[in-house]
Design a protein that fits this description.
The protein is built from 22 helices and 16 strands. It has helices at about 1-20, 30-40, 45-65, 70-95, 105-120, 125-130, 135-150, 185-200, 215-225, 235-245, 255-270, 300-305, 325-330, 350-360, 380-385, 405-410, 430-440, 455-465, 480-490, 525-535, 550-555, 580-590, and strands spanning about 160, 170, 285-290, 315, 340-345, 365-375, 395-400, 420-425, 445-450, 470-475, 500, 540, 570, 595, 615-620, 625. The chain has a 14-stranded mixed β-sheet with strand order 3-4-5-6-7-8-9-10-11-12-13-14-15-16. The chain has a two-stranded antiparallel sheet with strand order 1-2. It is elongated and about 130 Å long. It comes from Epichloe festucae (strain Fl1). It holds the Pfam family zf_Tbcl_Rhp7.
């Protein structure tokens, strides 16, 4: 056992002798003495140079005074070294800069030491390597001096005086060398760097695009906005105005659609402020549209009604500061509003809404309210039914107070032609059916967003009551069936619809996501019935996420004999059976098609898109937007 251990230790020693292990460079925290010496520019090199200088002086004195014993000489050198080191530390603590404020004796000693060190450098290999590129003896002295300064330069973390402004600063690895030697502080280093960079030749500027349409992102944004091709002169003027808004005094007599376009650009760029609001609020203004009023105060809204007495249509989004005081001022004015659109005014109390309809209800024809939280409820609908006999448009979205009772009261608005609801309280089929049965014959627009409890009874009532519908929206229903949609569109006396939005009317079951035994939602037969009834007049169709429409149904609807002359926009995202062949059939059957969305249609691979048509959501490496060039 012992012999085995001996052999093992010998083998380890032999391995160690054959391939010595590399030394480990382990560093730890610095002591207080180390930090003190570094802060006063006392480095190991300086201590070594001073020690060599003291030894040389001791040897010289020994040669002059006679020989001494080695012990006495060593004791003298140690004593002198200790005293000199203490004196150097004390002197360094009081110095303002290294190498400055030295006495004549110290300066001469320092010069002698530097000269001897330079002579040693001239005999080194580093000097010989640099000497190969230098022929003149003066240049060789400069090379030796440069090597000396490199070796004796202050280390990072030490203190040094700037060679230009003489300020004390901490040396870093990025400290710049001065033109006459020494190091520079950060401000002086930046100035010198600018001067040196200015002396260099200017770099070539990157080549600008000459197409005149900007970057790829702006091109895609224009395509999504439908702005394809050369911009019109009016568009260029509007964009120029938006860029120089501070120079504009008024908009003049621009048409209403251009003023609306300017307002949209201002809101998009956050340019609508109290300073720019007077561009839109003029004494002759009859319609004002504020698409982002977050930067406006209550006094700014009051100023609108002060300046524009003939105002007929008022629209404000993100109108956070539209409070009771603003409504009080509006009610005190003789302004006959016909359209009132308010978004985000959740600080406006319900009592002020009642006063508005009581005093201004006779002239009101349209009311659109968004994000009013708990200040617009069932009682408000009753007040509207009493005091707004001419109200033809009502839209309420993201409201937390209106309930089924208020929805039933909407049926008392006899002149209503456009109705849109999106409420936080769930709506039953009975409440919706009750309202539609009363106002259905005159309805032109019916929008019911997020109605999971609505069933086929609502579709049947729409089929029986509505005779003038042009736009129908029912989203996220979980109880309507494919047969209910078939019954709605089959033999319906209503004229063909122009816009249909039935997105997310589908079967939802996490345990069986693919199965749909009862054909819940819009499926194949319902989609066929829709296109058969309204196909000739349809402009916009949205069947987003109606994933139970089969591939055969799409092929039958867009077969070689089908033509949909007015269809411009088709949303079929997440209809999983859509293929390249179906898209090709859509492009052939819809001559006016402008935009098709196919997000989540993973069977779409490489379809050819006609010129002027936008295909959005193609799952390929070329991007999400494709503009046809064929």
């Amino acid at each position: 056992m012992c012999a085995h251990r001996v052999r093992r230790s010998r083998a380890q020693n032999q391995d160690a002798a054959g391939s010595p292990r590399p030394t480990r460079n382990i560093t730890g925290p610095q002591s207080a003495l180390t930090d003190f010496l570094a802060s006063h520019n006392i480095s190991a090199r300086r201590i070594r140079d001073d020690a060599e200088l003291r030894r040389m002086e001791a040897n010289n004195r020994a040669g002059i005074n006679g020989h001494t014993s080695p012990v006495e000489e060593a004791e003298a050198v140690v004593a002198e070294s200790s005293a000199a080191a203490a004196a150097a530390a004390a002197a360094a603590a009081g110095e303002q800069s290294s190498g400055r404020n030295l006495t004549g004796t110290q300066s001469s000693k320092r010069k002698k030491t530097e000269q001897k060190t330079i002579e040693k450098i001239k005999a080194s290999r580093a000097f010989k390597k640099r000497k190969k590129h230098v022929d003149d003896s003066d240049d060789s002295d400069e090379v030796a001096r440069a090597i000396f300064e490199e070796r004796h330069a202050p280390l990072p973390g030490q203190m040094e005086n700037c060679a230009i402004c003489d300020k004390r600063f901490t040396v870093t690895p990025y400290s710049v060398a001065g033109p006459d030697g020494g190091l520079l502080c950060a401000p002086c280093g930046r100035e010198i760097a600018k001067e040196r960079q200015g002396a260099q030749p200017n770099k070539k500027k990157p080549r600008k695009q000459t197409g005149g349409v900007g970057s790829r992102r702006s091109i895609q944004s224009r395509i999504l906005d439908g702005d394809v091709g050369t911009k019109s002169l009016a568009t260029l003027c509007v964009q120029t105005l938006a860029k120089n808004v501070d120079m504009a005094e008024s908009l003049g007599d621009l048409p209403e659609h251009l003023v609306d376009k300017i307002a949209r650009i201002f809101s998009k760029r956050r340019l609508l402020r109290p300073e720019t609001l007077p561009l839109f609020a003029q004494p002759t203004t009859e319609s004002i549209k504020i698409y982002d009023g977050a930067n406006l105060s209550a006094q700014d809204y009051i100023s609108i009604f002060q300046v524009a007495p003939n105002l007929r249509s008022f629209k404000a989004r993100s109108a956070i500061q539209f409070k009771d005081e603003v409504m009080d001022y509006l009610l005190s004015r003789d302004t006959a509003l016909e359209s009132f659109y308010l978004h985000g005014a959740n600080l406006l109390s319900e009592e002020k809404w009642h006063e508005l309809f009581e005093k201004k209800g006779q002239s009101l024809k349209g009311v659109q309210v968004y994000y009013t939280d708990r200040h617009f409820g069932d009682d408000t609908i009753d007040v509207m039914a009493t005091h707004c006999p001419n109200l033809s448009r009502l839209k309420i979205e993201n409201n937390q107070k209106l309930t089924e009772k208020g929805v039933e009261s909407i049926g008392n608005l006899s002149a209503l032609e456009h109705l849109g609801l999106q409420l936080h309280h769930p709506l039953s089929s009975a409440s919706i059916t009750s309202a539609v049965s009363k106002i259905g014959p005159k309805l032109k627009t019916l929008s019911l967003k997020i109605v999971p409890e609505a069933d086929d009874g609502v579709l049947q009532m729409i089929h029986e009551s509505c005779r003038s519908l042009q736009k129908l929206r029912i989203t996220e229903s979980e109880k309507m069936t494919d047969q209910g949609f078939v019954n709605l569109f089959k033999d319906w006396v209503n004229p063909p619809l122009q816009k249909v939005d039935l997105q997310k009317c589908r079967y939802i079951d996490a345990s069986r996501p693919r199965a749909n035994d009862e054909n819940v939602g819009l499926c194949s037969e319902g989609f066929k019935a829709l296109m058969a009834h309204s196909g000739p007049k349809l402009v916009d169709v949205n069947v987003h996420a109606c994933r139970h429409i089969s591939q055969q149904a799409f092929e039958d609807v867009f077969d070689e004999t089908a033509v949909y002359p007015e269809l411009k926009r088709l949303e079929i995202s997440f209809c999983e059976e859509v293929t390249d062949f179906i898209l090709g059939s859509i492009f052939r059957a819809c001559p006016k098609i402008k935009e098709v969305n196919v997000f989540g249609c993973m069977k779409v691979k490489a379809v050819r898109v006609p010129r002027g048509t936008i295909l959005v959501g193609v799952p390929n490496a070329q991007g999400m937007i494709t503009e046809g060039m064929d």
